[in-house]
Write a structure and sequence with these properties.
eight-stranded mixed sheet; globular; 19% helix; two-stranded antiparallel sheet; Nucleoside Triphosphate Pyrophosphohydrolase; alpha+beta; 147 residues
């Protein structure tokens, strides 16, 4: 499932690639898998909860924390990633920073109404196929199509 990386692993041109973690929030409804997407705070695009690794937490633990803060999700996260994807994060100055996101599947057990970023984001359940059509990152689209 690994996405193609630049020839010089960890770099694009002269710039280092940064690592983020993401949570692919999943549930079963009527025997069918559903994916929870949230809107990004800046552009309102559909994304998965993601953020930076956290000191004192495993990568999967950091992804679970991001799912709580950004989507109000509580559940069981896998220790092993389901895949990874790449995107360019647009910075305040308009430049782009290359980011690799390691994605961990999270089985949603509870969805809270009150969570840290509740007033900054929308959230919605999608079929994997529909979710793939609604996200912009090609690598994430592929992860969703492979569900």
């Amino acid at each position: 499932m690994k996405q193609d990386r630049p020839a010089e692993k960890g770099h694009i041109g002269d710039r280092p690639v940064s690592l983020q973690v993401g949570a692919l929030c999943l549930r079963l409804r009527d025997g069918k898998t559903q994916v929870l997407l949230i809107t990004s705070r800046d552009t309102g695009r559909w994304v998965i909860p993601k953020g930076w690794p956290m000191r004192g937490r495993s990568l999967s633990g950091a992804a679970r924390q991001e799912a709580w803060e950004e989507a109000g999700v509580k559940g069981k996260i896998a220790k092993e990633p389901i895949g990874e994807f790449h995107y360019d994060k647009i910075l305040d100055d308009g430049s782009a920073a290359p980011i690799d996101v390691v994605v961990f599947p999270l089985r949603v057990e509870q969805l809270e109404k009150a969570f840290p970023e509740a007033h900054q984001r929308k959230r919605k359940w999608f079929s994997p196929k529909s979710a793939a059509k609604n996200v912009h990152e090609e690598g994430l689209q592929q992860i969703l199509r492979d569900l």
